[in-house]
Amino acid sequence: LMAEKGGYKHFMLKEIHEQPRAVRDTIAGRLLESEGDVYLEGLNFNDCQLAAVKRIIIIACGTSWHAALVGKFYLEGHCRIPVEVDIASEFRYRNPVIDESTMVMVISQSGETADTLAALREAKARGAMNMAICNVVDSSIARESAGVIYTHAGPEIGVASTKAFVTQLTALYLFTIRMGRSIGTIDLAAGQSMIAALKHVPALLEEVLTLNSLTEKIARKYMNARDFLYLGRGKNFPIALEGALKLKEISYIHAEGYAAGEMKHGPIALIDEEVPVVMLVPRSSNFDKTLSNMEEVSARGGRVIALCTTGAEDIAGRVEDFIEIPSLCEDLDPLLLSVPLQLLAYHVAVLKGTDVDQPRNLAKSVTVE
Ligand code: G6P
């Protein structure tokens, strides 16, 4: 069994470490560098069909839903197409407004999640264009979608999704480039620079993985906390949600992800000396805003664990714990920031002695409603 896990103690840790390779596989053979475009073999929509898309609805469950929330930023930001994101079990029962100019995109690692499959069928029945981002080749969702982008993350065994998530973000970015190039909202130079940034991701993920021992030290310090808060803004709000989900799934500690600016509308009431607050504060357009939320937490005695990108060393002295990741760009920093959050959840769970790969009450693939 140890061999199956590639020498790692758990599948989850192995899969966290496979992320550089996984992202390499997601982009392999798909980058058309000189054209500033990408080739997505299973997409099956030509420029003319893509130009007809007036609205996108992205539908998923769990971790895949968090990827969808980041996808909204990519697509609206670069393609100026309105994007809605919905939870599959909500979408399928809410009598959604859909027509032939709506592209419904479902995201699923397994391709077998019952609610996501049902949502896809519902969208098709209502005449929507449809596509999937999927990991498992020839899964039900992949087979039933008009177009598919495979993530090529390889088999994911740990119930807590890690490499599937980061490759879903990569696939969303690839689709954004394709869409933007085909409708003209991304010009040649912009397409080329997006591709150049994407090519840096695998090596930077390798670099971020060297934070393993630091995150273990931090995990040891906070493992007995009863509640955790995760705060972020913009594209990093979904990353905060995902960080909190990872922790609750495998360590059984109550954790909540919140949009940093919403903190004052509720969660701030929870903050005292007992509550670790993981703050995502990469250098970005809303850096100062998030920083002021961080000060609000500190002022109430909250124990801040700050995740920053290089160039924010000044923050280190103002927080209890500080994790620095290399900075790439606002679009892709969320991929890098995901890794220390996975590692933090992993180490807390291991220290607490839970069944990391098979947490209680959870299933890898939820094929019943
Ligand atoms: C289950 C898994 C999660 C996963 C979710 C959606 O809850 O435990 O890790 O994110 O299903 O799965 P899917 O295969 O559709 O991405």
TrEMBL record:
Catalytic activity: D-fructose 6-phosphate + L-glutamine = D-glucosamine 6-phosphate + L-glutamate
EC number: 2.6.1.16
Keywords: Aminotransferase, Cytoplasm, Glutamine amidotransferase, Repeat, Transferase
Subcellular location(s) of the protein: Cytoplasm
Active site (UniProt): 364
Residues of the SIS domain: 46-185, 218-359
One Gene Ontology molecular-function label: glutamine-fructose-6-phosphate transaminase (isomerizing) activity
The organism's place on the tree of life at top rank: Bacteria
Quaternary context: Homodimer.
Function: Catalyzes the first step in hexosamine metabolism, converting fructose-6P into glucosamine-6P using glutamine as a nitrogen source.
Name of this protein: Glutamine--fructose-6-phosphate aminotransferase [isomerizing]
Organism: Pelotalea chapellei
Organism phylogeny: Bacteria, Pseudomonadati, Thermodesulfobacteriota, Desulfuromonadia, Geobacterales
